[in-house]
């Protein structure tokens, strides 16, 4: 068996196999871009709901019924409502990941022209 040039990474529930290191770098940059964007959207959405007179818990219940239901909203939503922001991931790393995603997008901008 020749697997010397094939790399693999365990992504939670499945194994991704590809023969290029750059694939994994791009994959993780895109993954963390999604993660950071969702975290930002959930926090802003909860504040908007609260300041609009809606119960933020009701918003979380509605989100959990639809196509955007996900474990992160279920885990982080209630703690955001309680103003409990115990760090699980340092902000400096989140900012780095977003800068990497923006740089990757800038580098690929010519593809969209």
TrEMBL record:
Molecular-function GO term, any one: NAD binding
Protein name: 3-hydroxyisobutyrate dehydrogenase-like NAD-binding domain-containing protein
Family: Belongs to the HIBADH-related family. NP60 subfamily.
Domain 3-hydroxyisobutyrate dehydrogenase-like NAD-binding: 37-106
Alphabetical keyword list: Membrane, Transmembrane, Transmembrane helix
Classification of source organism: Eukaryota, Viridiplantae, Streptophyta, Embryophyta, Tracheophyta
Transmembrane domains' residue ranges: 12-36
């Amino acid at each position: 068996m020749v697997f010397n040039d094939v790399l693999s990474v365990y992504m939670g529930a499945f194994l991704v196999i590809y023969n290029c290191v750059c694939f994994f770098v791009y994959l993780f940059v895109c993954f963390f871009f999604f993660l950071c964007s969702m975290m930002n959207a959930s926090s802003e959405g909860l504040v908007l709901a609260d300041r609009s007179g809606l119960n933020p818990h009701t918003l979380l219940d509605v989100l959990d019924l639809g196509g955007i239901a996900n474990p992160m909203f279920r885990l982080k939503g209630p703690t955001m409502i309680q103003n409990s922001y115990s760090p699980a991931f340092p902000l400096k790393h989140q900012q780095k990941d977003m800068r990497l995603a923006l740089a990757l997008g800038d580098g690929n901008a010519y593809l969209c022209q």
